[in-house]
Amino acid sequence: MSFTAEVKDELSRVKRSSHHADMAELAALIRICGTLSFRGPGCYSIRVSTETGAVARMVLGLTHDVFSLKTKLTFRQSILHKTRNYLIEIPDQEGLAQALVSMGVLTKQHSLASGINQELLVNASCCDAFIRGAFLAGGFIANPHGDFHLEIAVMGEQFANQLVELVNKRGIPARLHHRRGAYAVYLKSYEDIVALLTLLGAHKMSRALVKVRHMKSLKNDVNRRVNAEIANQARSTNAAAAQLTCIAHIKKTVGLEALPASLKTFCALRCEFPELSLRDLGQQVTPPLSKSALYHRWLRLQEFAQSLQGS
User: Fold this and answer.
1) Nearest Cα to 36, choosing from 139, 107, 132?
2) Total domain count for the chain?
3) What does the pLDDT read at residue 81?
4) C-alpha span between 173 and 176 (Å, rounded)
5) Average pLDDT of the chain to the nearest whole number
């Protein structure tokens, strides 16, 4: 099961709060993944096609509980793509036209509505239910082991803008992207995605997201430390090679006996321990020498070698 499917499955099991909130959630489901058909004046039917069992379960349950409408469910499985498809039909029947008006699918004049029926959003729980229904119908959340991304695909500019405003009013900054005739209400911030999942009732999956983020943070920290250590080792190796080259040049030209005692000690240490950093090199003598002390001896050794080249 994909991460999106797991989130939708948990959202479909959120405890219902009120009849009005149920209507708001069903309205979002129908508006986003439903298809309305006209069969003459006052005659309508709805078809909802989905590959998600959670969505099919919500549409069936809410349609029966909120409006007591009859439904027909057809289950199909694609042999080629190995995917399931649920087709829910709400045929023309008494009460359907009024239900469509109540959900904001139709206006009171029975024309197609373009925005969200604000009468559905009477309180915070109704707003959350509408957003939950919208995500169930058109939502996608990327596997958190990759990038953090959540979006809800919808049709209609006015509906999309009002959905963005609704999410923003619930304290979560959403954005809108227009692509190929459709709209995507999206979040890319990890904190915002966790906040939205928690708000909608997907507490288990929000905790899973937090856990993945924590593991990614630990891995990134380990990688940073390893990369820093590799870089330090490379710098130490290059510095040691330069020091050995300098020592060899002095030994070949005037001999190490020409050096002061402190520089002879440095040369002896470096030749004996060519792989150590300056910090570790200083621990090989008693009393130990600091990294700073050895670095200054190296600078003096460089100056001595340069004076030989100039003479």
Assistant:
1) 107
2) 2
3) 60
4) 10
5) 90
Pairing state between β 84-90 and 175-179 = unpaired
Rounded to whole angstroms, the Cα distance separating 163 from 5 reads 22
State the average pLDDT over residues 67-72: 94
Structure confidence at residue 196 as a pLDDT band (50, 70, 90): very high
Structural domain boundaries enclosing 281? 217-310
| Whether 241 and 142 share a structural domain | no
List the CATH number of the domain containing 180: 3.10.28.10
Residues 123 and 244 grouped into a single domain: no
Same domain assignment for residues 27 and 115? yes
Q: pLDDT (tens digit, 9 = 90+) per residue, 214-228?
A: 888 788 888 888 888
Q: Quick: pLDDT tens for 163-185.
A: 999 999 999 999 999 987 789 99
